[in-house]
Specification:
Layout: E1 7-8, H1 9-13, E2 19-21, E3 27-28, E4 30-32, E5 42-45, H2 59-64, E6 69-72, E7 82-85, H3 89-100, E8 109-114, H4 119-132, E9 137-141, E10 144-147, H5 162-174, E11 179-183, H6 186-190, E12 201-204, H7 212-215, H8 218-230, E13 237-241, H9 247-251, E14 257-261, E15 271-277, E16 282-287, E17 293-297, H10 302-317, H11 322-331, E18 340-341, E19 349-353, H12 358-370, E20 376-380, H13 390-401, E21 404-407, H14 417-425, E22 433-436, H15 440-450, E23 456-460, E24 467-470, E25 473-476, H16 479-489
Length: 490
């Protein structure tokens, strides 16, 4: 990837009401908000807010690494770099990044997908639908960054900080993409990462408890999601899930056209008429404003059917024809780590999924129950240094929906792993078989060793993450790889 750029600081700031101290004739080669990424010629923007440090504390480090200019919200003395004073660095960061990279979002049809669950699958579906209809499309999200048929290159965040986001958009455009489907997280919306991007289509999947450690309340969480729809133009389209109670509140916040989808609500604009579910694929006929669409997808489960409806609605909003919609859905491989089947020739099923919220776990286990005649087993844990209130809720859900539960560590981070398991157990009445071991590999081994022909084992929480976050740092750990290794030995 490239998108290397250079711009005179005076040109970057032209027309903006900012105070510049030290001259604006510097040449800027990069915009960063992390001092560790500063290089000679960089503009360091000292953002505040969220759960992050006040980046003003790292101005000296950025300058020591060669930053040519700094943007700050207060006077900084004795710094041998051009200083730019503004009232809110966070709100300035996206507009500077956009200008620096030549305003690439204005040259693309932009689709934003937000919601608690389903963002990744829906955005990836849309990327493939748009790419099938030609010309090229790009994807930005949890799986990384991809253009056309390219393999996704990992990102640090679901929605990158503004400088990285606009750099990726520039690369996409330089590689002849005309559209981009991106996941837009609540953190990104609250922290202004996507400010200034005029989305042509915004998709809402669902809203359930998550990220309350960041947002504080569910109302704040909903408000953050709503910002994506506040900014839609009248000629844009909001795609809303009528099966979710929050859809109406979001519809009232937008002046754009509204197109709905759903599985249960018969008044939805895009909805399945007939459905056939198997472990290996889903077939359905879909009613839509452009006529009925026959769909075959390798993705299975009730929740993936909802994601398919969302992607179809997004494609319809962008004018994609029926044949391209059908082909795009059919050609999408299983999204890594999302209800991903692990098959080493064993007589029972194994699914790995990213479900890490109460609603996500419930949805996955309900979908898995539909696909097995034997016992349903669940391996899961909860992340450390995150919303602890969801731990007993997830314990109760697992106990109610699975026949056997194997509690284990997720990403414990700085918290004692056993303490997290104990808090999960508070929501469980011990009415089903419960196994607990803080060692995730041991828990997976126990579950797969217990499984018999016809059973189905769901390993939930981490999906395609290739690591586990422990108190002393990250270690290599991929649920899919571990499951395959164990299955070859069982």
């Amino acid at each position: 990837m490239a998108a290397d750029r250079r711009m005179r600081l005076a040109d970057l700031l032209a027309g903006y009401p900012v105070e510049v101290q030290g001259g604006g004739d510097r040449e800027i080669e990069r915009i960063v908000s992390d001092s560790r990424q500063a290089v000679p010629g960089a503009l360091f923007v000292a953002i505040r807010g969220g759960q992050e440090e006040d980046r003003h504390d790292f101005v000296a480090d950025a300058v020591a690494r060669g930053a040519a200019a700094i943007m700050v919200e207060c006077e900084i003395d004795c710094v041998p770099a051009t200083r730019i004073l503004v009232d809110d660095c966070r709100q300035w960061l996206p507009r500077l990044a956009s200008r620096f990279y030549g305003e690439p979002a204005r040259q693309l049809r932009c689709v934003g997908v937000t919601g608690t669950n389903g963002k990744t699958t829906t955005a990836w579906f849309l990327h493939r639908i748009l790419h099938t209809s030609k010309p090229a499309s790009a994807y930005i999200g949890t799986m990384g960054f991809a253009v056309g048929d390219g393999v996704a290159v990992p990102n640090a965040n679901t929605t990158p900080e503004a400088p990285e986001l606009h750099r990726l958009l520039r690369i996409a455009r330089d590689q002849d993409a005309v559209s981009v489907a991106m996941e837009v997280s609540s953190h990104a919306l609250a922290l202004h990462r996507t400010d200034g991007i005029d989305f042509d289509v915004a998709v809402f999947t669902n809203l359930t408890r998550d990220h309350l450690d960041f947002h504080g309340t569910f109302e704040n969480y909903l408000d953050a999601k709503g910002r994506l729809f506040d900014g839609l133009a009248a000629d844009a389209t909001a795609i809303l899930n009528r099966d979710d109670a929050s859809w109406r509140a979001l519809s009232e916040r937008t002046k754009s056209h509204v197109l709905t989808y759903g599985l249960e609500d018969l008044s939805a604009d895009v909805r399945p008429v007939t459905v056939s579910k198997e472990l290996a694929q889903t077939r359905c006929r879909v009613a839509s404003p452009i006529g009925e669409i026959d769909v075959v997808s390798p993705l299975t489960g009730h929740f993936n059917l909802s994601n398919i409806m969302a992607a179809l609605a997004g494609g319809i909003a962008l004018g994609v024809e029926v044949d391209a919609l059908h082909e795009g859905i059919a050609q999408v491989p299983r999204v890594p780590g999302r209800f991903e089947q692990i098959d080493e020739g064993q007589a029972f099923g194994v699914l790995v999924d990213y479900a890490h919220t109460p609603a996500g776990l419930q949805t996955v286990l309900e979908a898995a129950r539909e696909l097995t005649q034997g016992r349903l087993m669940c391996v899961f844990g909860c992340g450390g240094d995150r919303d602890a209130g969801k731990r007993p809720l997830m314990g109760r859900i697992a106990e109610e929906l699975a026949d056997l539960v194997f509690l284990t560590s997720d990403n414990p981070r700085s918290e004692p792993p056993q303490q997290i398991l104990d808090e999960i157990l508070q929501g469980m009445s011990q009415t089903c078989g419960i196994h607990a071991d803080v060692d995730r590999r041991v828990a997976i081994e126990e579950a797969l060793s217990e499984a018999c022909a016809g059973d189905l084992v769901v390993i939930a929480g981490k999906g395609d993450e290739p690591y586990q976050l422990l108190a002393d740092g990250a270690v290599d750990f991929d649920d899919r790889q571990v499951a395959r290794e164990v299955l070859r030995q069982v």
